[in-house]
Amino acid sequence: MEIAALVIILALALWVVFKPVRRDARLRERDELRVDQHRRHHTEVVRRESSAANVNLTHLPVQFVVFDLETTGLDPLRDEIIEIGAIRVNRDSVNHDTFEIIVRPVKKVPAKITQLTGITQAMVDGGDDLDYSLRAFCKFVGDLPLVAFNADFDMAFLRSASNKCGVTIPQRASCALKMARRAWPERASYKLKDLARDGNLGLEDEHRSLGDCKRALIVYTAAASRLGTTN
Question: What is the pTM of this model?
């Protein structure tokens, strides 16, 4: 099956309702999370197509978390996390929780990073410190399996941050990028935006953590379906 068709089928099978899990400092203490309901309305045509596709997702974990980081650079020892986004996926449900937090770095956000991500210095100045952000993320994840598009990159930053904050993240992360390379070895490009474009996925919120999570989720499930494995 071509990547575009497989991605669309999996998107229909998985992606119906998201519940954003966000902080609300005005209403709760800083260590609490507020769950708001947000529904994406799909047409009857989409529901029929999803049902007709009859996609088998049993090879996926019952629950897992797809996450993405935005950072000030490429070096996990010198650069810093400025945004964490995640989707807690429920394989057997159409309800998936999302997490998104802006992290306040010690250093200024480089202009090239603002140009790439749209994350400004003013945004991070109003964000949360690394310790709070990382612990909130770990609370959201629990002991569930992790997935990232470029897992080596994201996990290196998570490990560096966890060492600074004294937080333990025992999970390894499945890498959607490596799986895509095995699933479609003939491709010329494995950039997330190219995989998304070829799968007819939108590029809204590109280089923002939650937007890239959504694309990584579908690429991961499409590659896993093709390969018959989640690693």
Answer: 0.80
